[in-house]
Amino acid sequence: MNDEIDLAGVGVGPFNLSIAALADELPELRTRFFEKRERFAWHPGLMFRGSRMQTSFLKDLVTAVSPTSEHSFVNYLVRHGRFHAFLAAESSAVERVEFADYLGWVASRLSSLRFGVEVRDVAAVPGGFELRHDQGRTRARHVVLGTGRVPAVPECARPHLGPNCFHAIDILARPLHLQGARVAVVGGGQTGAEVVLELLRGAWGEVAELSWVSRRLNFEPLDESPFTNHLFTPGFVAAFHELDRPRRQSLLARHKLAGDGISLSTLRELHDRVYQLGALRSGPRVELLPGRELLSLSPRGSGFELHTRNNLDGEHESLPVDTVILCTGLREQLPPCIESLLPELERDEHGGLQVGANFELRRRRAGDGRLYIVNGGRTTHGIAESQLSLMAWRSAVILNDVLGRRRFAVEQERELVRWRARPREDARSR
Ligand SMILES: Cc1cc2nc3c(=O)[nH]c(=O)nc-3n(C[C@H](O)[C@H](O)[C@H](O)COP(=O)(O)OP(=O)(O)OC[C@H]3O[C@@H](n4cnc5c(N)ncnc54)[C@H](O)[C@@H]3O)c2cc1C
């Protein structure tokens, strides 16, 4: 495969899939999206049966900017003969397996996707970029990186990674036998909660002891209240992007629970189960340990001793366990294939990447083409960047930029909330 195109995508997760789905409406644009997996899959290692989306099904690949697109979730329902049955449940939080099936259905309908093709190198060349991949080379005017985020592993756990201490990202692909084991789950977000639930269901055998360790002072719910939901609007992202770095950093910390909290339904289910186990005095011994900072891990027999500091009373504690499951989240990381471009990338004084309002990675020397990134600008665009909420809008911003014209209407909706100060002249004229 040696060809020339307008836009190449590296990685086909939901975010680049959204760009590919919208680009399907643009016959004038030659696009190609490369994915190293053999077929589309959405976080398969965490696809627990019964887990629900944390975002509405309307926040699909296309609807926000192209509601008549055939790649919408509603069209998926209609085509599969489930529209009325779906509505009957009156639920906007669909099961993740169903949303993954929708994503896979769209992927199967797009001719621009290439599966089983890893991009090995992206180099700047006259006229844009050259991609070297498993099927040859492709020249593209512009490139969009959509390679996702990587597991965040606490420094102290890194030397101990192995069959008894691992990140949860691929837990369903692991041969796990935890019958009679003492297990610690580290991390108090949605994934931590879902893994604890699975353990209590006996998914990998009935554990003897289960300790759930979280740095947060309590097991806290996702904030889905109406005004918090306005943080996931184009208007807020624009306002956030214009702020200086210290202000953005402080907002990211304050907005934690808007993106990283636990769904209320999951919390209720967990509470019920733990309560029932205590009431019936059966099943594993469960210890809920919020407010604990993991300080270190030391090997002990075939397991570990976890050392924590209790942030409530300042005391130090230790916990002997056989298995440690790290539900410590994902972090941004540029893919190795753009190594040759790294020296060109603009950084702020803290080494942070500079991602423009058009999602372009700013480069010291502007080349002939633009290098975009999705899911790589949390510090520049805010918490919405790693969520599905604004994915269709962001895809449209990028495609408009590639086309050099306003093909999709991405201008800000009338915002209910005025985030920034009104310009002075504007204020006087009122
Ligand atoms: C379990 C889980 C549930 C989530 N649920 C929600 C939710 O309900 N609502 C919400 O808003 N957000 C949710 N998120 C957050 C977010 O929507 C997802 O993380 C989403 O998958 C991000 O999409 P992505 O395309 O950036 O990355 P990914 O889905 O990680 O996809 C990246 C793809 O790039 C491929 N790739 C990497 N390098 C290369 C290369 N060199 N060449 C070719 N291919 C490559 C990878 O194989 C992968 O398929 C969830 C996250 C997780 C982990």
UniProtKB/TrEMBL annotation:
SUPFAM superfamilies: FAD/NAD(P)-binding domain. Keywords: FAD, Flavoprotein, NADP, Oxidoreductase. GO terms for molecular function: oxidoreductase activity. Pathway: Siderophore biosynthesis. The keyword DNA-binding does not apply. The keyword NADP applies. It holds the Pfam family Lys_Orn_oxgnase. Its cofactor is FAD. Belongs to the lysine N(6)-hydroxylase/L-ornithine N(5)-oxygenase family. This is Lysine N6-hydroxylase. It comes from Nannocystis exedens.
